């Protein structure tokens, strides 16, 4: 494999290369290269440099999604953005998605939905969330995203270390299921995000003012109380902290279990 440090460092001067597999050595090298590079510049260099045309962004269009999407729009508004509509989302989230798409001029947003036959078999009464949320997330969220990521070798997530104890050691770059996973906002604080949104006058998710600091599906999201982790309102009462898209298994075909 050619030296990633040499090609990424000179970014726009290097012609994009075709899709390829990434290794932990790539992630380690990129972590060293971008250790002190601001998130917006990092994203711009990656999307217009060696990784041009290879990177997809995964967005929930949730509480803080506007920050990453604003940076993306500045770098490449045509870049693919994958959004999973579980068909249990808040209508406010769908309206917020449409608002940000228009405002930021994003032209590559793809909405992924559960496969109808698989969904009808797994969740015929729309109550799967109430007795097996892992299975519900698998069919409504993980499988659609796995389909959307087929052929994708590098993707960007909006995760932040401060969101929960399980994300406290989040690196800028990591390898997951053989893909390069990029977390430009890993070290950002809530104050950083608020300052960025204020600076660029970005609209807030309509539910944030009601205490929803991390927003997923309607049945599994509650407002967060003062002093709680921002994600404490997700799957409240369950021993579950992630929907599964950030756990191993996105490389598996849809008919194989992901949990
Ligand atoms: S967050 Fe809840 S409703 Fe949404 S897919 Fe997961 S278990 Fe189902």
Put the structure in a nutshell.
The chain is an alpha/beta fold and 259 residues long. The protein has helices spanning 4-9, 24-33, 39-48, 65-75, 91-104, 116-122, 128-131, 133-148, 190-199, and strands at 55-58, 81-84, 109-112, 154-156, 173-176, 179-182.
Task: Describe the 3D structure.
This protein is an alpha/beta fold. It has one domain: HUPs (Rossmann fold), CATH 3.40.50.620. Helices cover 34% and strands 9% of the residues. The chain is built from 9 helices and 6 strands. Strands 3-2-1-4-6-5 form a 6-stranded mixed beta sheet. Helix 4 links the parallel strand 1 and strand 2. Helix 3 packs across helix 4. The longest helix is centred in the middle third of the chain and has 16 residues. The protein starts with a helix and ends in a 60-residue tail after the last helix. It binds iron/sulfur cluster.
Notable characteristics:
single chain, 259 residues, alpha/beta, Rossmann fold, 6-stranded mixed sheet, 9 helices, 6 strands, globular, binds iron/sulfur cluster
CATH architectural type: 3-Layer(aba) Sandwich
Order of helices and strands: HHHEHEHEHHHEEEH
Estimate the global geometry from the Cα principal axes: globular
Counted by DSSP, the helix tally is: 9
Give the topology, please.
Blueprint: H1 4-9, H2 24-33, H3 39-48, E1 55-58, H4 65-75, E2 81-84, H5 91-104, E3 109-112, H6 116-122, H7 128-131, H8 133-148, E4 154-156, E5 173-176, E6 179-182, H9 190-199
Parallel strand pairs: 1-2, 1-4, 2-3, 4-6
Antiparallel strand pairs: 5-6
Helix pairs in contact: 3-4
The chain binds iron/sulfur cluster (SF4).
Iron/sulfur cluster (SF4) is lined by residues 86, 88, 129, 133, 136-137, 140-141, 216-217, 219-220, 243.
């Amino acid at each position: 494999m050619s030296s990633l440090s040499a090609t990424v460092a000179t970014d726009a001067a290097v012609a994009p290369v075709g899709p390829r597999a990434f290794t932990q050595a790539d992630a380690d090298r990129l972590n060293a290269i971008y250790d002190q590079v601001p998130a917006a510049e990092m994203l711009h260099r990656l999307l217009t440099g060696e990784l041009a045309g290879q990177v997809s962004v995964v967005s929930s269009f949730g509480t803080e999604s506007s920050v990453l999407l604003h940076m993306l729009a500045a770098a490449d508004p045509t870049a693919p953005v994958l959004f999973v509509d579980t068909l249990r989302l808040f209508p406010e989230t769908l309206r917020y998605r449409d608002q940000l798409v228009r405002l930021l001029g994003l032209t590559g947003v793809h909405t992924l939905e559960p496969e109808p036959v698989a969904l009808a078999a797994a969740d015929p009464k729309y109550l799967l969330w109430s007795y097996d949320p892992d299975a519900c997330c698998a069919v409504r969220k993980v499988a659609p995203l796995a389909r959307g990521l087929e052929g994708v070798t590098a993707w960007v997530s909006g995760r932040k270390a401060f969101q929960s104890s399980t994300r406290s050691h989040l690196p800028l770059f990591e390898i997951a299921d053989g893909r390069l996973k990029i977390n430009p906002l890993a070290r950002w604080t809530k104050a950083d995000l608020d300052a960025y949104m204020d600076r660029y006058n970005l609209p807030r998710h309509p539910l944030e003012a009601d205490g929803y600091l991390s927003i997923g599906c309607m049945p599994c999201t509650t407002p967060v109380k003062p002093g709680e982790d921002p994600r404490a309102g997700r799957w409240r009462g369950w021993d579950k902290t992630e929907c599964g898209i950030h756990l191993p298994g996105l490389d598996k075909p849809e008919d194989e279990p992901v949990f």
